[in-house]
Amino acid sequence: MKDFFEGIQWVFENILFYPLDALRALELDSWFLANILNWVFMIVGFLAFLYWMKQLKIFNDRNEENRESTSHSFLG
């Protein structure tokens, strides 16, 4: 059973984490490229935020939302 878990450890350390190890080694040369995953996640989050705001504006322009204080029982 121990060999099974050591095999899983070997796969993660030597194969699956290799791209992250390469990014860590790249930090000495280029900080921007070493943090490329962070930049990608921030861009995706920003684009999702812009899409969400666009959808909220569409619903607001159509007046589809009930904005009365009695629209929800916990507000009244």
Notes on the structure:
The structure is a single chain. The chain contains four helices and no strands. It has 76 residues and is mainly alpha-helical. The chain has one domain. It is elongated. The model has no long low-confidence stretch (mean pLDDT 89).
What is shown here, in short?
The protein is an all-alpha fold. The chain contains 4 helices and no strands.
Q: Could you outline the blueprint of secondary structure elements for this entry?
A:
Elements: H1 2-16, H2 18-26, H3 31-34, H4 36-62
Global morphology: elongated
- Give the class from helix and strand content and strand pairing: mainly alpha
The helix/strand series, from N terminus to C terminus, equals: HHHH
Low-pLDDT stretches:
none
Helicity, as a percent range: over 70%
Terminal-residue CA separation = 61 Å
Radius of gyration: 24 Å
Overall tally of domains: 1
Main β-sheet: number of strands, strand sense, barrel status?
none
Number of strands: 0
Helical element count?
4
> What share of the residues does DSSP label as strand, in percent?
under 5%
Mean pLDDT: 89
